[in-house]
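Task card 7
Instruction: Convert sequence to structure tokens.
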Amino acid sequence: MKEFIYSRNAVYEAIVAKRRQIFSIEIAEGAQEKGKLAEIVKLAGQRKIKVNRVPRGRLDKIHQNHQGVIAEVSGYPYADVTDILEHAKDESPFVLLLDSLQDPQNFGTLIRTAEAVGVHGIIIPLARSVEVTPAAVNASSGASEHMLIAKSNLSQAMETLRDADIWLVGLDQAGAEVEANSRHLKGALGLVVGSEGEGIHELTRKKCDIVLKLPMKGQIESLNAAVAGSVALYLAYLNRK
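Output:
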């Protein structure tokens, strides 16, 4: 399956990661080929990827936020849960599980944060969940191209992680308030973030070893999934250090 990914960071990272086949790159005529765009052209030449200069309107028909470049690529290469565990190697596994997240912008934000803090992989459900679409790739600024993302039955994936002695921590407003120096966020960790509206499903919650919530001082009741998940990922990152 082929698809178009767009924006300079997304296309650049797809080339650098070398996980997808890149069939061609189209650059808007008149676009100043400097900075990231110049690097894309240079890398494309090194890898013998065809580069076409085309009218900007052609790119506009694919997506308005193309930033002057679009790449036709193979579909996203999903990993397996075992690939994620093997990727951890001698480190304590650090895994993000997303329970039926729907919004590609939120997904992309979480992928980008996860990649920044050294998460070994992300697990999403097989159905009724956002996938690694071009919109998610763009929202992640191309971080998706470096991240191992597995589609799996979430319940079975949690059992696999538990068998690998990974502590499963759910993030939900109904949980206990997390402390800055939390023992629950150290060592081998699977952080579970729920969907934008429903949070963590009951079956998922029951499989967590503990459910925590972020402390809130302001007037709003909660943060959205991407912000809350990103804060929790950084808390885990600091605790794991």
